[in-house]
Specification:
Elements lengths: L19 H32 L3 H10 L5 H24 L3 H24 L4 E2 L7 E2 L7 H20 L7 H4 L5
Antiparallel strand pairs: 1-2
Helix pairs in contact: 1-3, 1-5, 2-3, 3-4, 4-5
Length: about 180
């Protein structure tokens, strides 16, 4: 009896009846999807950190949110670009990929919460995500766009966190996420 005689059986390679076909396609694509997400996040974080230099610009951006006392604003303003550079480097080389993705996701949640807080309190500020932040004229804010952008970055970080396996990573050379 061949597979054409029984309508419930499918021929090998027949994707209509092969339940593993979509899974095997994802298994083949996933490392490359993660690589793209990893490198994109590294570029985004690296650029964001670079645009916050000198640190006086970063401190000014943090102060605009009017959430913390001056010493805390200074600490955050100084350490934020360093954290972004460190995460960018880890993501770029693929070292501790899952943890770097999780830390980036957490950072995006904090950024989103800060922007929502500024919006809810009626502040007219630039988020300072890429360069100088601070007061802007009423109507010049872009909170919705900033939040949507950061949700997109959060999705990229989620991909890296959930599926850390990718080519061209130090994790892979170390025998992790094969």
């Amino acid at each position: 009896m061949d597979s054409t005689d029984n309508p419930t059986e499918t021929a090998p390679g027949d994707s209509a009846g092969d339940a593993t076909a979509p899974r095997s396609r994802w298994a083949a694509a996933q490392p490359w999807v993660t690589l793209v997400a990893r490198v994109a996040l590294a570029g985004i974080l690296g650029f964001a950190a670079y645009t916050k230099l000198p640190v006086a610009l970063s401190i000014q951006s943090v102060e605009a949110y009017d959430l913390f006392p001056d010493p805390v604003n200074e600490f955050i303003g100084i350490t934020l670009p360093l954290l972004e550079f460190a995460l960018a480097l880890l993501l770029l080389v693929g070292l501790a990929t899952r943890y770097a993705g999780a830390a980036t996701a957490l950072l995006m949640v904090v950024f989103i919460a800060g922007i929502v807080s500024a919006w809810a309190r009626g502040l007219n500020i630039d988020c300072g995500c890429f360069g100088t932040g601070g007061p802007v004229a009423p109507g010049e804010t872009a909170y919705g766009v900033d939040i949507a952008r950061d949700i997109g970055f959060l999705a990229l970080a989620g991909i890296v966190m959930v599926w850390p396996r990718s080519p061209l990573s130090l994790d892979r050379f170390a025998g992790l996420y094969r």
